Amino acid sequence: MKQILTVLAFFASIYSAASAAEYDTVFLDLAAGDVMEHYRIGYGETPAGEEGEKVTSMFYLGYFTSEDEIARGSDHFGEEKVEILTLGAGGFGYLEDPQKYGGAEFDFEISQTKIDALDYDRVGLGFRTQLFIPVVAGLQTNIGFNVRPFFFASDWNEQAQLEYEYQLGLEYAFSWDVAIYGHYRYLAVVDDEDEEIQLAEGSLFGLRARF
């Protein structure tokens, strides 16, 4: 509980800093694939200034769902539903020119992961980041990860030691505010017996925008 209160205080400090900015911003990140979907909608503030200074501080709500083969070693549970609800806070933006310098997103999240087939229901804190690395004009590679370790969970390590995901893909940034992308993403849990449980693996195609 102490860790959760600490992170909530951090969220409040982000909002306080953002409140001095010049204009309101809506953030959207909408993606879907064959076995998974991930949607985020956020609200925050973006300072006025040069394009490279427009880093949005925001809160957001997220929802991830998948129906893929869940496996623990040689044990397979079939195609089962995974749901992850998130409340996040952080910052997103490109550097001076997204076609030349790239950018990043860094967030802290409170999440609830539910897997009915495993009787798994866990609330925890995590860290999400994405890095945008230019290739040629407008085209960027995207590398990201999200980790939710046991010591930030409400149930400590009763059900798992770690939840994690990583992604790798390409995206095209039309401007500082709009990009389309395609990612490979992998999600897994390391359970309390040190075994990895694969939750979902596949491709996502999406749109990210702020306005």
Question: Can you give a write-up of this model?
Answer:
The protein is mainly β. The protein has a single domain (2-210), classed as Porin (Beta Barrel), CATH 2.40.160. Helices cover 8% and strands 67% of the residues. The protein has one helix and ten strands. It has one helix at residues 2-18; strands at 23-32, 36-46, 56-72, 75-94, 103-115, 120-136, 139-149, 160-173, 178-191, 196-210. Strands 1, 2, 3, 4, 5, 6, 7, 8, 9 and 10 form a ten-stranded antiparallel sheet that branches. Strand 6 and strand 7 (139-149) form a beta hairpin. The radius of gyration is 18 Å and the shape is globular. It starts with a helix and ends with a strand. The model is unreliable at 14-21 (pLDDT under 50).
Strand content: over 45%
Annotated CATH architecture: Beta Barrel
Order of helices and strands: HEEEEEEEEEE
Q: What is the fold named in CATH at topology level?
A: Porin
Please, how many domains? 1
Q: Which stretches are low in confidence, meaning pLDDT under 50 for 5 or more residues running?
A: 14-21
Instruction: Please tally the helical runs, counting DSSP H or I stretches of 4 or more residues.
Output: 1
Gist of the model:
With 211 residues, this protein is mainly β. Helix content is 8%, strand content 67%. The chain has one domain: Porin (Beta Barrel), CATH 2.40.160.
Topology summary:
Layout: H1 2-18, E1 23-32, E2 36-46, E3 56-72, E4 75-94, E5 103-115, E6 120-136, E7 139-149, E8 160-173, E9 178-191, E10 196-210
Antiparallel strand pairs: 1-2, 1-10, 2-3, 3-4, 3-10, 4-5, 5-6, 6-7, 7-8, 8-9, 9-10
